[in-house]
What does this fold into?
Amino acid sequence: MTTPTESLSDQPDAPDTKSGGISRRGLLGLAGAGIAGLGVGIAGDRTVAALAASGTGAVSTSYPFFGEHQSGIVTPAQDRLHFAAFDMSGSATRDDLIELLKDWTVAAAAMTAGKDIGDFGAVSGPYDAPPEDTGEALGLPASGLTITFGFGPTLFQTTEGADRFGLAARRPAELVNLPHFPGDRLNPATSDGDLCIQACADDPQVAVHAIRNLSRIAFGRASLRWSQLGFGRTSSTSTSQTTPRNLFGFKDGTANIKAEEPTAVNDQVWVQSGDGAGWLAGGSYLVARRIRMGIEPWDRTILSEQEAVIGRNKGEGAPLSGGTEFTEPDFALSGRENIPLIAENAHVRLAHPTQNAGIRMLRRGYNFVDGNDELGRLNAGLFFISFQRSPHQFTEVQLNLARHDALNEYITHVGSALFAVPPGATRGSYVGATLFA
Ligand SMILES: C=CC1=C(C)c2cc3[nH]c(cc4nc(cc5[nH]c(cc1n2)c(C)c5CCC(=O)O)C(CCC(=O)O)=C4C)c(C)c3C=C
Ligand SMILES: [Fe+2]
It folds into this structure.
């Protein structure tokens, strides 16, 4: 942590620090009253307050931060998202970048375990210093929080002859901005970035707390370029999850890659050691697309047309060629007058692996509604996120969709970004360490 712990540690007996009605002595008192045996009671452990608040003793899901792969990819998609892209400051050095990644690692490991950040957390520090943790997650459990870090193409750039962070030679050949697709209306202010953080949780406050505190830690070294809140997942990444619905009212995520398909995950999601950049093995590529959805025109569209556009029925999500939700679509099946039951320009036909040389991707997107525009239309859509072994997988499918998809009448891509997601951090090391080895 960048927090000057030395100056904090010499004040352990600061007065009973009151903040938001919770006192430091009160928290420690709780630990002493029967739950100290669980190993809680250390400053910053929110579980203390959560257990006391719920009165149930229930501990919510938490995913380990350290491991072979970063969490937040094949872990079951949570309900809420706060996604943020950052730019490194003009004066930041390679050492600053490494220090930042180390600090982010420590904080992310704490928060995903349901703890506040720093040695003293939100309310146990000295009265005469800003708290290390901002505090809005006090009393909330880990809530399935995952924090996933990525590196954008510009991090590897050479500007005016200078190799910004000495990384130019380490850039994977495929880590370049996505091409312009037909129909794109991208806003540069909500596109790209040197670094990204995807925070997903089952409680929106926990996801927002994570991004807020990581941004705060970055102060002076990196700053927020853009960020996106998402409510309501639009995919399942495990067979144990039910398929959610997007804002057009259709089940979304039915044919997604699921964690229970290890061969597909290996072949289509994780970068392999022979793929090019060795440091990225065990990682992935993250594509983010902010897609505005025309809610009002869609809501004036008749049901049969809505179903024809997607290629599945709206109730169950079954393919229009028949069967139930998980029946494979039969694109060869025709109905009256030899018209294909799933139209040539239906979204699921054009996105299906059989139409794209076997390509699949792991989708992990979220619905968003950011108020309304000046014409009184909902500023709403899908914050599309996909993870793939190569950006080429997204590009191929998106090219097919951008050219022919019936859905294009109702959607516009307004933001875009690509990031290389390094493998998981080993305990004692930091996220992205392989890039600097
Ligand atoms: C380039 C990738 C994709 C973009 C962009 C995209 C946007 C998008 N999708 C929907 C709604 C649905 N998509 C569905 C399936 C589906 N979509 C993609 C890819 C992109 N979608 C794929 C690879 C698939 C799976 C195809 C298959 O193998 O059958 C579905 C059907 C249910 C499902 O399988 O998930 C819906 C519904 C919207 C609304 C949208 C942009 C706003
Ligand atoms: Fe789709």
In short: Confidence is low (pLDDT under 50) at residues 1-43, 48-59. The chain has one domain: 1-437. The longest strand covers residues 222-233.
